[in-house]
Amino acid sequence: MVDKVAKGHRLVMVNRELIELSGVRKVQSFDPKEIVLETELGILSVKGNQLGIKLLNLEEGLVDLEGSVDALIYHRNSSSNSRRGFLNRVFR
């Protein structure tokens, strides 16, 4: 369905049951109710039920998820902020 060449971050969702992602750097956590991914644009949480990883190719930055999707959340404190020290975040 989606051209599988990763150029930047792309998210395609079909019927709230299938998500095709590009630009994924890392899977931070995974369980059937929430999958947390580090993308080129920051941290993405996918919340729902019976979530699973259908395709995982981190060399190309590709991930396909399946299950019942309830929410997609991009977190403000992306990977760039998490790499900074605690004191830098407090005193910015």
From TrEMBL:
Domain of life from the UniProt record: Bacteria
Gene3D superfamilies: 2.60.40.2000
Record's signal peptide: none
Organism: Desulfosporosinus orientis (strain ATCC 19365 / DSM 765 / NCIMB 8382 / VKM B-1628 / Singapore I) (Desulfotomaculum orientis)
An individual GO BP term: sporulation resulting in formation of a cellular spore
InterPro entries: Spore_YabP, Spore_YabP/YqfC, YabP_sf
Name under which the protein is recorded: Sporulation protein YabP
